[in-house]
Amino acid sequence: METHVLVVHTRPRPGAEAEYHRWYDDFHLDEVLRVPGFVSARRLQLLPGDAGGDRAPGLPAGPGSHLALFTVETDDIDATIAAFERARTTMRTPDCLDPDSVTLSWWRSLSHRTTTPPPTGPGHPDPAPGPTPSHRKAPSP
After folding, report:
1. What are the strands of the beta sheet with 38-45, ordered from one edge?
2. C-alpha distances out from residue 114 to 20, 35, 66, 73, 110, Å
3. Mean pLDDT in runs of 10 for the chain (141 residues)?
4. Which of 5, 16, 4 minimizes the C-alpha distance to 101?
5. Rg of the chain's alpha carbons, rounded to an integer?
6. Nearest to residue 96, comparing CAs of 16, 29, 8?
7. What is the pLDDT of residue 37?
8. How many whole angstroms separate alpha carbon 88 and alpha carbon 34?
9. Cα 74 from chain centre
10. Cα–Cα distances in Å, from 50 out to 42, 47, 56, 60, 62?
């Protein structure tokens, strides 16, 4: 089974932030997670004065100020995307959401590692050796 992520950029309409968060958390996440293959969701908000430096600290966030990351597990991503698109036709766009801010992108996972490294030390086998970084010399035999 392959893992994919649907990344959704959105922003609330000015003055409708509380309603937007309520809609997303209490309704929309569940609505999306009912689509077969969607297994988890996480929401994020861009920090004021983001590291990209495209706006000054304290100013209202611009386009794409919020992200929703949906993890999707499927053997047929094209069928899953089609099922999602069919489901989208029944999903309501609330007044609190700026419809011009919505962008979607699909991503394929290149790594299955999503947790911290396994423990090492007494009672734990040494991790498999990896390549020697180019800035360090390998020990002499």
Report:
1. 38-45, 66-74, 2-10, 103-108
2. 29, 23, 22, 14, 11
3. 94 93 96 97 81 49 77 97 97 93 93 70 63 48 49
4. 16
5. 21
6. 16
7. 97
8. 11
9. 16
10. 19, 5, 8, 11, 11
Question: CA-to-CA distance for 37 and 104, rounded, in angstroms?
Answer: 17
Model confidence pLDDT, tens digit, residues 117-132: 777 777 766 655 555 4
Angle at 55 between CA 93 and CA 64, to 5 degrees: 20
Select from 84, 82, 69, 72 the least CA-distant residue to 108. 72
Cα–Cα distance, 108 to 77 (Å, whole number): 9
pLDDT for residue 138: 47
DSSP state of 102: -
**Token pair belonging to 25:** 């958390």
> Are the beta carbons of 101 and 63 closer than 8 angstroms?
yes
Q: What is the DSSP letter of 73?
A: E
- Which position has the token pair 């999707």? 72
- At 46 the pLDDT is 83
The β-bridge partners of 66 are 10, 45
Q: 97: which 2 tokens? A: 């959401």
